[in-house]
Amino acid sequence: MQDQDILTNRLMTIAAMFFCGLLLSLQTGCTQTAESSMEDQHLEHHIPGHKPKSYTATVRELDTRMRWLLNHKQEEGSQEKQQELGEIIDWIPELAADSELKHRDWDEVKQSSTELMTVYQQIDFADVDSSLVGRYFLLVVKLKQFSALSEMNKVNG
Protein backbone atom coordinates (compact mmCIF):
# COMPACT_ATOMS: atom_id res chain seq x y z
CA MET A 1 0.00 0.00 0.00
CA GLN A 2 2.82 2.37 0.88
CA ASP A 3 4.46 1.60 -2.49
CA GLN A 4 1.23 2.52 -4.23
CA ASP A 5 1.09 5.89 -2.36
CA ILE A 6 4.69 6.64 -3.34
CA LEU A 7 3.96 5.72 -6.96
CA THR A 8 0.83 7.89 -6.95
CA ASN A 9 2.77 10.87 -5.49
CA ARG A 10 5.52 10.47 -8.09
CA LEU A 11 2.98 10.32 -10.92
CA MET A 12 1.20 13.41 -9.57
CA THR A 13 4.54 15.26 -9.33
CA ILE A 14 5.53 14.23 -12.85
CA ALA A 15 2.10 15.22 -14.20
CA ALA A 16 2.28 18.60 -12.42
CA MET A 17 5.80 19.24 -13.80
CA PHE A 18 4.68 18.25 -17.29
CA PHE A 19 1.64 20.53 -17.07
CA CYS A 20 3.78 23.49 -15.83
CA GLY A 21 6.30 22.88 -18.62
CA LEU A 22 3.52 22.78 -21.18
CA LEU A 23 2.03 26.05 -19.93
CA LEU A 24 5.45 27.71 -19.89
CA SER A 25 6.21 26.63 -23.47
CA LEU A 26 2.81 27.83 -24.67
CA GLN A 27 3.30 31.19 -23.00
CA THR A 28 6.78 31.57 -24.49
CA GLY A 29 5.45 30.68 -27.94
CA CYS A 30 2.75 33.34 -27.66
CA THR A 31 5.25 35.96 -26.57
CA GLN A 32 7.55 35.20 -29.50
CA THR A 33 4.62 35.31 -31.89
CA ALA A 34 3.50 38.68 -30.54
CA GLU A 35 7.04 40.08 -30.80
CA SER A 36 7.44 38.70 -34.33
CA SER A 37 4.09 40.19 -35.26
CA MET A 38 5.15 43.61 -33.98
CA GLU A 39 8.42 43.40 -35.94
CA ASP A 40 6.55 42.36 -39.10
CA GLN A 41 4.13 45.27 -38.70
CA HIS A 42 7.04 47.68 -38.24
CA LEU A 43 8.71 46.39 -41.40
CA GLU A 44 5.47 46.54 -43.39
CA HIS A 45 4.94 50.19 -42.53
CA HIS A 46 8.46 51.35 -43.42
CA ILE A 47 8.21 53.25 -46.69
CA PRO A 48 11.51 54.54 -48.06
CA GLY A 49 11.68 58.31 -48.43
CA HIS A 50 12.50 58.04 -52.13
CA LYS A 51 9.40 55.97 -52.97
CA PRO A 52 7.07 58.10 -55.11
CA LYS A 53 3.49 58.51 -53.92
CA SER A 54 1.85 57.87 -57.30
CA TYR A 55 2.46 56.45 -60.75
CA THR A 56 2.63 59.96 -62.21
CA ALA A 57 5.25 60.99 -59.64
CA THR A 58 7.18 57.80 -60.42
CA VAL A 59 7.42 58.64 -64.10
CA ARG A 60 8.63 62.16 -63.27
CA GLU A 61 11.30 60.66 -60.99
CA LEU A 62 12.51 58.34 -63.76
CA ASP A 63 13.33 61.37 -65.88
CA THR A 64 14.64 63.68 -63.16
CA ARG A 65 16.85 61.13 -61.44
CA MET A 66 18.42 59.82 -64.65
CA ARG A 67 19.28 63.37 -65.73
CA TRP A 68 20.84 63.99 -62.30
CA LEU A 69 22.90 60.78 -62.53
CA LEU A 70 24.14 61.65 -66.00
CA ASN A 71 25.25 65.10 -64.83
CA HIS A 72 26.70 64.02 -61.46
CA LYS A 73 28.10 60.55 -62.14
CA GLN A 74 31.34 61.12 -60.22
CA GLU A 75 29.84 62.92 -57.23
CA GLU A 76 29.51 61.49 -53.78
CA GLY A 77 26.11 59.88 -53.32
CA SER A 78 25.68 58.96 -56.97
CA GLN A 79 25.93 55.23 -56.15
CA GLU A 80 23.08 55.60 -53.67
CA LYS A 81 21.05 57.55 -56.23
CA GLN A 82 21.66 54.78 -58.79
CA GLN A 83 20.36 52.19 -56.33
CA GLU A 84 17.32 54.34 -55.53
CA LEU A 85 16.50 54.72 -59.22
CA GLY A 86 16.66 50.95 -59.62
CA GLU A 87 14.21 50.60 -56.73
CA ILE A 88 11.89 53.19 -58.28
CA ILE A 89 11.90 51.24 -61.55
CA ASP A 90 11.00 48.11 -59.57
CA TRP A 91 8.02 49.93 -58.03
CA ILE A 92 6.52 50.97 -61.39
CA PRO A 93 4.06 48.04 -61.69
CA GLU A 94 2.93 48.40 -58.07
CA LEU A 95 2.32 52.13 -58.36
CA ALA A 96 0.67 51.74 -61.78
CA ALA A 97 -1.67 49.14 -60.27
CA ASP A 98 -2.70 51.71 -57.66
CA SER A 99 -3.47 54.24 -60.40
CA GLU A 100 -6.51 54.59 -62.62
CA LEU A 101 -5.00 52.57 -65.49
CA LYS A 102 -7.10 49.97 -67.25
CA HIS A 103 -5.83 46.39 -67.02
CA ARG A 104 -4.56 46.24 -70.62
CA ASP A 105 -2.67 49.52 -70.08
CA TRP A 106 -1.17 48.14 -66.87
CA ASP A 107 0.06 45.10 -68.83
CA GLU A 108 1.91 47.43 -71.22
CA VAL A 109 3.33 49.42 -68.30
CA LYS A 110 4.56 46.19 -66.71
CA GLN A 111 6.22 45.12 -69.95
CA SER A 112 7.80 48.55 -70.46
CA SER A 113 9.05 48.67 -66.87
CA THR A 114 10.71 45.26 -67.28
CA GLU A 115 12.39 46.51 -70.45
CA LEU A 116 13.35 49.75 -68.71
CA MET A 117 15.02 47.80 -65.89
CA THR A 118 16.97 45.72 -68.41
CA VAL A 119 18.21 48.87 -70.16
CA TYR A 120 18.97 50.62 -66.86
CA GLN A 121 21.05 47.69 -65.58
CA GLN A 122 23.18 47.86 -68.74
CA ILE A 123 24.05 51.53 -68.33
CA ASP A 124 27.60 52.07 -67.10
CA PHE A 125 27.71 55.58 -65.64
CA ALA A 126 31.51 55.64 -65.85
CA ASP A 127 31.34 55.16 -69.64
CA VAL A 128 27.85 56.12 -70.79
CA ASP A 129 26.52 54.51 -73.98
CA SER A 130 24.28 57.13 -75.58
CA SER A 131 22.18 54.51 -77.38
CA LEU A 132 21.25 52.88 -74.03
CA VAL A 133 20.45 56.26 -72.51
CA GLY A 134 18.35 57.11 -75.56
CA ARG A 135 16.46 53.82 -75.21
CA TYR A 136 15.93 54.56 -71.50
CA PHE A 137 14.35 57.95 -72.25
CA LEU A 138 12.17 56.51 -75.05
CA LEU A 139 10.75 54.03 -72.55
CA VAL A 140 10.19 56.85 -70.04
CA VAL A 141 8.27 58.78 -72.72
CA LYS A 142 6.13 55.69 -73.32
CA LEU A 143 5.45 55.38 -69.57
CA LYS A 144 4.53 59.10 -69.48
CA GLN A 145 1.77 58.44 -72.01
CA PHE A 146 0.23 55.94 -69.60
CA SER A 147 0.56 58.49 -66.82
CA ALA A 148 -1.57 60.86 -68.89
CA LEU A 149 -4.13 58.07 -69.45
CA SER A 150 -4.22 57.41 -65.73
CA GLU A 151 -4.86 61.06 -64.98
CA MET A 152 -7.61 61.25 -67.63
CA ASN A 153 -9.28 58.14 -66.19
CA LYS A 154 -9.15 59.71 -62.74
CA VAL A 155 -10.88 62.86 -63.99
CA ASN A 156 -13.43 61.00 -66.14
CA GLY A 157 -13.85 58.06 -63.81
Please supply descriptive tags for the structure shown above.
157 residues; 5 helices; mainly alpha
Helix content: over 70%
Rounded mean pLDDT score = 82
Apparent shape: elongated
Q: What is the chains' assembly state?
A: single chain
The N- to C-terminal Cα distance equals 87 Å
Molecular structure report:
The model has no long low-confidence stretch (mean pLDDT 82). 81% of the residues lie in helices and 0% in strands. The N and C termini lie far apart (87 Å). The chain is mainly alpha-helical and 157 residues long.
List the helices and strands and how they pair.
Blueprint: H1 2-44, H2 55-71, H3 78-97, H4 103-122, H5 130-156
Helix pairs in contact: 2-3, 2-5, 3-4, 4-5
What can be said about this structure in brief?
With 157 residues, this protein is mostly helical.
